[in-house]
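Lecture 7, part B: from sequences to assemblies.

Below are the input chains for today's worked example.
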Amino acid sequence: MTRLHVSATINGDPVEFLCEPEQTLLDVLRDELQLTGSKEGCSSGDCGACSVTLDKRLVCACLVLGAEVEGHSVETIEGMAKGNKLHPLQQRFLEHAALQCGVCTPGFLVAARALLETNPDPTERDVRYWLAGNLCRCTGYDKIVRAVLEAASDIRAR
Amino acid sequence: MATTEETRARAVRPNLTWVGTRPVRPDGVDKVTGRAKFGADLQLPGMLVGRMLRSPYPHARIRSIDTSKAEGLKGVKAAVTRDDFEDLPSEFVPAGEMLVNYRDMVRNVMAREKALYEGHAVAAVAATSAAVARQALSLIEVDYEPLPHVIDVLEAMEPDAPLLHEDLVTAGVEPPPEAPSNIAKRLSFTLGDSEAGLEEADLVVEREFTTRPVHQAYIEPHACVANVSEDDYAELWCTTQGHYVVRAFCAKLLGLDISKLRVTASEIGGGFGGKTVVYLEPVALALARKARRPVKMVMSREEVFLASGPAPGTHVWVKMGATRDGRITAAEAVLKYQAGAFQGSPITPGAMCAFAPYALENVKVTGYDVVTNRPKVASYRAPGGPMSEYAVECVVDEIAKTLAIDPVELRLKNAAREGTRTVYGPKFGPIGLIETLEQAEHHDHYRAPLAPNQGRGVACGFWFNIGGESCASLHVNDDGTVTLTVGTPDIGGSRASLCLMAAEELGIDFEKVQPIVADTSSLGFTFLTAGSRSTFASGLAVIEATRDAVRQLCRRAAQIWELPEESVRWQDGCARSEESEDAPEPLSLAELATVAGKTGGPIVGHAQLNAQGVAPSFGTHIVDVEVDRETGLVTVVRYTAIQDAGKAIHPSYVEGQYQGGAVQGIGWALNEEYIYGEDGRVENPSFLDYRIPVASDVPMIETVLVEVPNPRHPYGVRGVGETPIIPPLAAIANAVESALGIRFSELPMSPPRVLAAIHEGAGTA
Amino acid sequence: MRYEVPESLEEAVALLSRAGSGACVLAGGTDLLVQLRSEAIAPDLIVDIKAIAEVRQIVFTGGCFRIGAAVSGAELGEHPTLRKAWPGVVEATELIGSTQIQGRATLGGNLCNASPAADSAVALVAAGAVASVVGPDGHREVPAEDVGVGPGQTSLEKGEIVVSLTLPARPRYSGDAYLRFTPRTEMDIAVVGAGVNVTLDEAGRCAEARVALGAVAERILLAREAADALVGTSLDAAALERLSATASAACRPIDDKRGTRAFRLSVAGVLARRAAKTALERARGPR
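Predicted structure of the full complex, as structure tokens:
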């Protein structure tokens, strides 16, 4: 099998990798680049655990081929904290206990960040609908929604 | 925004510093940065990819399996089938609240004589890549003889139903039946004389209820990595609610010495009872032993739905009698639960829970454990409880409405309290059911006005909780910090609550306590994170280990001061002497730790126990729904979960349990179900068509924490994790009844069912 | 499997023609990758069309919007004027999947996946959209309702690609709406979908109407009788009831895992009526 050579930017860094044409971006992140923060919950775009941004656009990494990111920019959970400073969303998730098992958390954080970059002052309804593609089976969403609303307020106040 | 009231009915210990606070959990940063390693996140050098071949038939005899072509494929390093697992005798061992049988377990892990459900594992391969493994599976030749199948529990009980096990004879029936059947067990609990009780009643309500099979639907699929050296020393990394139990099961299934199998629990991405058993783990070990290379196996979402532990579908009959003034005089129930392919449905807890919220003199509960061509059921949050309590709570609601008594009033009139005898034997100690009902009655939610097409429902829930074996070690480090080693995987914040109790006992800052979940070779046997036991039982072990360390700290201080040991006590993080006049300056934990080397060596507290004194948790939920009469869509518009925590060690995570359980219950009530085709195959094994609630489906879940302390725990802890999934089923059914005047007796109340009932009611169906 | 990223339509058509039945077009990939992963398909060649300029643009020309087949739902929703003209088409597209899916899923893909439940395709049929198709034999125009002919089956010939979808010029007093029924608020496939597109005359009576129904037959239905129930009326209650009845009558649904036949028959009429009310309000414009 011929592997494809792909150059992309991942979390701001230039990255080159080889992948099979069948491999998804999620396969590449997890298996080739050891970026296992993006989780595989369904492989069909139904759970959002592998949420990343592709050129600032929120996508499921399981629904993108690795080969498709040639020349593009990908942001994953691993790029969210800057140095030792957590993103306000990460901080509020911790303070609000907005995670129990934590496996959906990276996807929620990446998706929520994409929301706040588009809509800095979302309503509860906005948050719930934007995050409808991220399944959480532990929390019942209550604390997640509160954490996102509060992080939005933190960012607006900055 | 919801209000959270923390009701302290009786204070156990005043002046708590850490217990009851809400610090950031110790493993939090790892989990918000993507660092935390879950089941599928481990990679080892030379690691192979393991894949399972699964039966396409719900029921088929396996005439032969030929793996030779697959094994001949370049890159395939091992293949295993039933021939690689030794048959085991019938032997029951506990797993969570259930019993498992090794003869059945070895067959569930790898089909033997027959494939008993669609997705039943038939063979497995380990290969150098996923693509090679996939190709290898297609080269395995299995000769199946398809057999008639049965999915529904009532159909499976018919005398002419297809038989799953030719040697299964109903237990619990005297004299034992001569013929085999799909009914594995019959059990009954009796209290008083229910027939006489029904005679006393002015009103008797008798109803039948059906619930569909549902899945735990944790977001993380089952995953593991196994490695077995040439001298058969085995290491296993897996996502599990109990790695000691995994070790026991795998050692047994593979004929390994327990001491030669080290199991490390990864972070766990949800379990809800479904990760208390083994599926991939023994197979990965078998492949790794053959290949002598690490093997990773990860289930796809489809495999999770097809082949891992769902909860049973059930049929429940309930009959209850009450006097005109609302006193329940008798209660009877017959529960029929699907076990799946092998016996062991949660029929016992179902029967224990059914009428537990009520102080009744006359009760009779009969249960049937029935095998069907579905995956063997696994625990799902209060296993067995939601279905029986749903039926009872609907009947109680009907009694209340028929007698024109407020449903909360009726429950208060009959509520179980301290001293109430349970149908399964013991009397309740102090319990908080009445307090939750009183909170419900006075909650503004209960009085808030309803809009057109809206209805309100309430229901109670009970779970008994469990104790069990736990170990804990507490290492006092020489800089005054503490390392806490426990054996229960942290599924939802238990590290935080355990560290809070350790910090409280030691009188040191929470930040100074760093927890770790030990592997099976580093700490003694510890039972599952299940049955709502971690904070309670591992908590008791942590408290005991901490007190052990405190005793040592006091002894060291006495030694330094050259005072008798008895004169030294531990308070506010320091050893203090009782001597009055020339009492020495107190010595802090850090000071004592620094000199530990000179005063006798390392200070390590340890505890191993089988936690006794577990106390049940009761809850009462209030829900408002709105029904679209033209489409049958039921929307939850407001929800309040009230529950007795005993003592909330970390209130945020207690609230989280209430909220998460409530939303799982909402899913169960409204949309979740396995859908089977005529061919016995699952039609919706995906998150697209198995509809768990998404964020926009639910409102905020308001919580009220009632705290009626458990007198047999130093801080009053009860388990809280399971009770919250129970009330939603009936509360929503009761709310829909309030909105429409139609009483549903079948879950889920999905739009087609609701619309059909509306049309029937309107005479237009 | 090979992966190719042609930069022109000609190149793409040539690749697809040469490869034959073992080739698949990749636009947003939200259906294709799921099929690949579940091994429902095993193509020899994937042709990613996203580097072709024509399929990525939204162009307003001659009063018509021409939407490139590989424009994502999110891009469609962000277009400054499209939503005002065709709110039903934009909302229908936005109903497809999650925010994540919106970042990828395309109008062309939704149409060519040929699911009878495809939200945006139902709205396109109601809108009277025309697909611009290129293939080895050149260019042709296909009405949206004639692209999908059965579950997963299109009328496209080997080597053909949908390049864009053209929405007709919008007369004054026009409005469209799309509604679907799903048990969940999001992340669900339509159990029933209904798109209604109306144009009123100066007197406020319905001059033209198109009604499309999804998930109620093996393909998306253009319900002409249902549209006729509206034309010439002021979309009063009686007309809406006739619409509802004719819409239900046009359906030929089945029982499946997502809903029952009875449910679909009933709800198709309800949604058609509700969508018509919204379309009417939009056609009348702000008061």
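Note for the exam: The mean pLDDT of chain A is 97. Keep this in mind when comparing with the next example.
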